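Q: Given only this backbone (70 positions), what sequence would you predict?
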C-alpha cells in the first residue's frame, strides 16, 4: 500500500475470504483488500493483498448513500 488509507472494517465473504475495507484518504475512494484467503474459495480474483472492487462484495452502496443524505 503506497497511499494513505484508513481502515473501515472487515467483511467475511461467502467463500470464506476475509476482506478489509479501507478509505483512501487522498481520493476518498473505498477500496477492499483480501486479508485472508478462504479455504473453500475458488475465485481467482480473491488473492491475498489484492484489491477487489466494492461492487463484488455484494453490498449496496446506493442505499447507504441515500440514507446518509436524509
Ligand atoms: Zn474468496
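A: Predicted residues:
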Amino acid at each position: 500500500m503506497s497511499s494513505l488509507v484508513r481502515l473501515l472494517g472487515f467483511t467475511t465473504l461467502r467463500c470464506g475470504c476475509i476482506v478489509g475495507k479501507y478509505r483512501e484518504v487522498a481520493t476518498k475512494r473505498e477500496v477492499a483488500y483480501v486479508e485472508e484467503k478462504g479455504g473453500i474459495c475458488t475465485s481467482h480474483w480473491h488473492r491475498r493483498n489484492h484489491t477487489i472492487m466494492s461492487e463484488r462484495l455484494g453490498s449496496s452502496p446506493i442505499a447507504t448513500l441515500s440514507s446518509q443524505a436524509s
